[in-house]
Amino acid sequence: MTRLNPRDARARADRLASGEVTAAEFSEALSRGLRILTAFDQRRQRMTLAEVAAAVSLPRATARRALMTLVHLGYVSVEDRVYQLTPHVLELATAYLLANPLSVIVQPACERICAQAGASCTVAVLDGADAVMIARAVPKNPLYLGTGVGYRVPALHSALGRVLLACLGDEQREAFLGSVEPVQVTPQTVTGKAELRTLIEKVRSDGFAYVDREAESGFHSVAVPLQRWDGRAVAAINIGAHVDRVSRATMLGPMLATLRAASAGLRRQLI
Asked: Is the pTM above the cut of 0.90?
């Protein structure tokens, strides 16, 4: 058996100590393969073996075995000793989207709102420290290229994320705030935890979140929760636009009203 590096050894010890999973139930090989897949991103679209090994903190021999397995399965291709993801990876996301009725239900709503508002409309759920998009529609405008389903934004600094955090129970929200360190994404990003806590509390009382250029320069958005029939929040929906195209007043007026109407209409469909 391959010896674990110090980080993996600590992670396994933490899992066992917490009772999350036993050693017999956890596949280190599968974990390594998934870490390698997620190491590829916009900055690291193509990597050598050495770069992959460094990105996931694995010995080169271990990383090579995982990479060759992924190549054999069709998720990664290699040319001139440089590795990159293949479109086959999309099957993993497709499986989630097809098996998740929420995505199927809300995608048409995103498209309707996008057409009506002339701005992007997104539905997201909380995943770790991020809000991850599970449905999205954008205007036919070059400014909106490059982000879609699966794209992530920091939960602390986005309207979608703050709505999702506001919907958590008090203990869950405090645990989240205790485990995540705010990152200065733009000059406007709020990084003080006390101020962030106050902002999230305001979202909970107001029923919506408005974030101005904190997650992306020049971009602001407003979001509301999506609740299922029994009132439990299952996702968040937003409208976002560049500040020079849509004013704050419009965002907090007609755009917010559109989202609230859509949320009320979707509630009967969400189980």
From this structure: no
